[in-house]
Amino acid sequence: MKDEFEKRGVKMIGLSANELGSHDKWIQDINEVANTNLQFPIIADADRHVAFLYDMVDQQDLDNIDEKGIAFTIRSVFVIDPNKKIRLTMMYPASTGRNTAEVLRVIDSLQTGDKKGVTTPINWMPGEDVIVPPSVSTPDAKKKFGEVREVKPYLRFTNVGK
Question: Which class for 56: exposed (0-12), middle (13-18), buried (19 or more C-beta within 10 A)?
């Protein structure tokens, strides 16, 4: 997945609920099990200071505590843009693995919206039609994008490519 994130100009960082000393073994295990080569920095947050500071622990995690009496795991994803603005947060329960394909889809949507001035509909994938924002008139949208398909006066689609 590293290549997919790099292709989009995205840098990843991890936050671990473990002590720094455990990371080498943990990374080896991930590489072996997932047949990958984990290559992004991981911040040790054994006392969950950062996790609580950024509200990354949900109620289920609070009920799933370690021997020290603190949340066992952190399952949050943040997408932060180059201006250091949080654009997305997703919080997964401890029982659910994160979906990197969805994270990449969101990044594609955010980057497309930022570059092209559009929004994306439900389940959008790169190359599919996008939505012309209501703040852009239909005549202006046609000047900007060419073909515009009007479903409702407030819902117009166009295609901006990949």
Answer: buried
Q: Could you write out the DSSP letters of every residue in 102-128?
A: HHHHHHHHHHHHHHHS-B--TT--TTS
The answer to whether residues 138 and 156 touch, using CB atoms and an 8 Å cutoff, is yes
Q: Tell me the C-alpha distance between 116 and 161, whole Å.
A: 10
pTM for this model (two decimals): 0.85
Place of tokens 């991930």: 30
Q: Over its length of 162 residues, how does the chain's per-residue pLDDT go in tens digits?
A: 788 999 999 999 988 888 888 888 888 998 999 898 888 888 998 888 898 888 887 666 556 666 666 556 777 899 999 999 999 999 887 778 888 899 999 999 999 999 999 999 999 999 999 999 999 999 999 999 999 999 999 999 999 987
CB-side neighbour CA atoms (13 Å) of 17: 20
With 0-12 / 13-18 / 19 or more C-beta atoms within 10 angstroms meaning exposed / middle / buried, residue 122 is exposed
